[in-house]
Amino acid sequence: MTDGPFRLLSWTPGQTMVLERNPYYYRRGLPYLDRLTFDFGVDPSVGVLRVEAGQADLVGDGIPAADYLQLRSSPQWSADVATRPAIGVYLLALNTRVAPFNNLKVRQAVEMAINKRHLLQLLNGRGVVANGILPTTLPGFDGRDIPDLYPYDPAKARALLRAAGFPHGFSTTLGLGSELAGGDAIGTEVQADLRAVGIRVTLKPLPSEATAIANMPMTTYTWFMDYPDPADFVDGFTSCSAAVVGGSNPAFLCDHALDAAANAARPLPLGPARVAAYRRIDLEVMRDAAYVPLYYPLFTFFHSSRLRGYYVNLAWFPADYTTLSLAP
């Protein structure tokens, strides 16, 4: 399939994948490892225990909040905790094709009902509160001044629900993508905050990171940089072309004016005009309120002491396996 450093040796879908060194890899002497084994569906806390016991070398889903402080304060393990600000955003996707989220006021109510700062406390402060879909860590977007259209305001959220025709709230379902680090904490916070304004939420684990599911009212969602440009985010999960079942737009947001603005911004040369164009698009995405940006995360990964050459790669996470090796 590729000319990469490893080739597929075996694969049991949903359970295990084994890769072996590609002897024809074009970079002479690489990779260092002869074989890689990936175990899927392992709870991250169990993964931490496996690394501590010498049964694994890397927890691929990041470090759960319950384990993070213990590992960071441990004289034995703190040196094996790797961190780096991510170029990504954690969000809620509100399905604009499923009632009542086809109502803008309902979506705005959800935006204002969630206490993002408290959520970050549950996650050990591993991130920055998000006001928009474009991370502040994107090149050119450091310190950007995007207004917070939806500050935390439960009273205003309840007023918006009344105006939308839901004075007593409603019941709905939130799908939790299993690959979302901190997903349990996110689900718990969202469920509690929405209950406080009258929205009763049932949490439903999903088998993998969520794609667009036709009848799922809300889903947790993440988007991390594929290439260092705002077009990767805007084209990736806000475009009409991605608003299809199984696509990368789980909110099914289709705003033709947004698509036109993205088409105009994409060919602009790097520089202030291009950044300004994408800032305007970010603001328009927030006015649609189909996505609730929660926070821009801090990557945290835990690896074994014998793993050499590990660093947090912003494009290939949890690792670029090409240059990893094991101490004898």
Could you please describe the fold and organization of this structure?
With 328 residues, the protein is an alpha+beta fold. It folds into two domains: 6-84 and 301-326, D-Maltodextrin-Binding Protein, domain 2; 88-298, Dipeptide-binding Protein, domain 3 (Roll), CATH 3.10.105.10. It is 29% helix and 22% strand. The chain contains nine helices and twelve strands. The chain has helices at residues 44-52, 65-73, 104-113, 116-122, 154-163, 183-196, 230-237, 256-265, 272-288; strands at 6-12, 16-21, 35-39, 81-85, 88-94, 127-129, 170-177, 199-206, 218-224, 291-302, 307-308, 325-326. Strands 4, 5, 6, 7, 8, 9 and 10 form a seven-stranded mixed β-sheet that branches. It has a three-stranded antiparallel β-sheet with strand order 1-2-3, with no helix packed on it. Strand 7 (170-177), helix 6 and strand 8 (199-206) form a beta-alpha-beta unit. Helix 3 packs antiparallel against helix 5 (154-163) and helix 8 (256-265) runs antiparallel to helix 9 (272-288). The model has no long low-confidence stretch (mean pLDDT 92).
